[in-house]
Amino acid sequence: MAEKTIPILPCRTLQPVLDFYTALGFEVTYRQKSPNPYAVMERGGIELQFFGVKDYGPAASLSTCYVLTDDVDGLHAAFRTGLKQAYGRIPTRGLPRIGPLSDMSYGVRQFLLSDPGGNCVRVGQPTSDDRHHRRAPEETFARALHHAALLADSKEDPAGAAKVVDRVLHLDDERPTPVLLRLLVLRADVAGRLGDERTRASALADADAVRLTAGERESVREDLERLEELRG
Prior knowledge:
Blueprint: E1 8-11, H1 14-23, E2 27-32, E3 38-43, E4 46-52, E5 64-68, H2 72-87, E6 97-98, E7 102-103, E8 108-114, E9 120-126, H3 140-153, H4 158-169, H5 177-193, H6 197-209, H7 214-219, H8 221-231
Helix pairs in contact: 3-4, 3-5, 4-5, 5-6, 5-8
């Protein structure tokens, strides 16, 4: 006997959500307007279903689901391309938005995708059979990055991530350069999600001022790419 799980996610109105997923390469395979708004969207082996709720508040939504894939980098690249074509840019804050690829401490490489209805779709690829959290680093800045990344990219708590980063950036300790760059990029990212443009601009400027060797630049290549996106 074969089973399949299909998430059914809420939204205020269907059309903006359908347009968003169409940009990602999904197709509407079923749509109902009455008695209740309902739609089914599919892309390959991914199926998502949506229902309309008139008084639903997308900004306060806690609805989420997880999509497992064997090509998370490919999906991330395809989704970014589709969103740029549809919106003229890659949305990185507000609703809708797409987050960066992150190697999580629990053996998954993933990114978060938030649609116009406020639903968070987590797309991930296992990188380890051990799903337990790896132990946090001992070094102060690396430890802060570890915890802040979990808050921002797993718990969806940008305010909590901001507090962790701000706490360590105010220390007088010697700052390890690549980790500092990653902290500042994350700080700019979560500031944007929180609508704090002043802090976002400040973090971007501080990140630009970090001097990296060629080897260090390669080690934080994805973070530098994210930095370019956040400037947009």
